[in-house]
Amino acid sequence: MRFDIITVLPGLLESPFAHSILQRAQQKGLAEIHVHNLRDYAANKHKSVDDYPYGGGSGMVMQIAPFAACIEQLQSERTYDEVIYMSPDGQTLNQSTANALALKGNLLILCGHYKGIDQRIREIFVTKEISIGDYVVSGGELPAAILVDAVIRLIPGVLSDETSALSDSFQGELLDAPVYTRPANWRGHQVPDVLLSGNEAAIAHWRYEQALARTQERRPDLLDE
Ligand code: SAH
């Protein structure tokens, strides 16, 4: 998969993709992430990409021309399955959206700042708007990093234990079961005996029951679905 991300703060996106699973996915050639500095597409000599809102009010608005120049350049090089704008009023990101996007080839992601981006960018270029939840952060970069992480870990071969993404919360209707590791006894707090029993069927049954109880307690809405 290939991800192109357009931002005014490319530095904000360096670290999230330079470690652990996301770094390995790129090293293995399973994912490519290209970050584009929107200011490189600004025509004015100050490289500014925002301006005052029409109609007045607080906050700056990101202009259409630099976004258009960058998007059109990228679209002349390849076809994108989706052009995604990270936005608090978009569709809330969930596992099924991540699963669907993991089947795509090329994704182009736009990060907003300040008051957001000129509405015409959304109408003309954007095919999908995604929110990371009902709260507002300062820019689209951290939301974009979350989206890209959620998608990349689903690409076959990215996680070393191939089944592990499938047993995560939200892949099925159940939340994940509790997990433990050594020591078996820490200050008298014991790991459940069944996990030490070596009885695979009993362990699977225990995990299922725990996952079910946890889901009933924390997210009964998942069972209703
Ligand atoms: N005025 C906008 C918020 C702008 S916040 C509004 O009220 O809807 C600045 C940028 O941060 C947005 O353009 C968007 O790219 C990003 N952003 C903020 N919160 C987000 C969220 N919950 N999900 C995805 N992107 C978000």
**Secondary structure tally: strands:** 9
From the N-terminal CA to the C-terminal CA, the straight-line distance is: 31 Å
Poorly predicted regions: none
The SSE order reads EHEEEHEHEHEHEEHHH
Describe the structure.
This protein has 225 residues and is of the alpha/beta class. It has two domains: 2-152, 3-Layer(aba) Sandwich (Alpha/beta knot), CATH 3.40.1280.10; 167-225, Trp Operon Repressor, Chain A (Orthogonal Bundle), CATH 1.10.1270.20. 33% of the residues lie in helices and 18% in strands. The chain has eight helices and nine strands. Strands 2-1-6-5-7 form a five-stranded parallel sheet. A two-stranded antiparallel sheet has the order 3-4. It has a two-stranded antiparallel sheet with strand order 8-9. The longest helix is centred in the last third of the chain and has 19 residues, at 200-218. It starts with a strand and ends with a helix. The mean pLDDT is 96. S-adenosyl-L-methionine binds at residues 112, 132-137. Specifically methylates guanosine-37 in various tRNAs. Its main location: cytoplasm.
Quick rundown:
Residues 1-224 form the tRNA methyltransferase TRMD/TRM10-type domain. The chain is α/β, with parallel strands linked by helices and 225 residues long.
How are the elements arranged and paired?
Elements: E1 2-7, H1 20-27, E2 32-37, E3 50-51, E4 61-62, H2 64-77, E5 82-92, H3 95-101, E6 106-110, H4 119-124, E7 128-131, H5 141-152, E8 185-186, E9 189-190, H6 193-196, H7 200-218, H8 220-224
Parallel strand pairs: 1-2, 1-6, 5-6, 5-7
Antiparallel strand pairs: 3-4, 8-9
Enzyme class: transferase
Main location: cytoplasm
Subcellular location: Cytoplasm
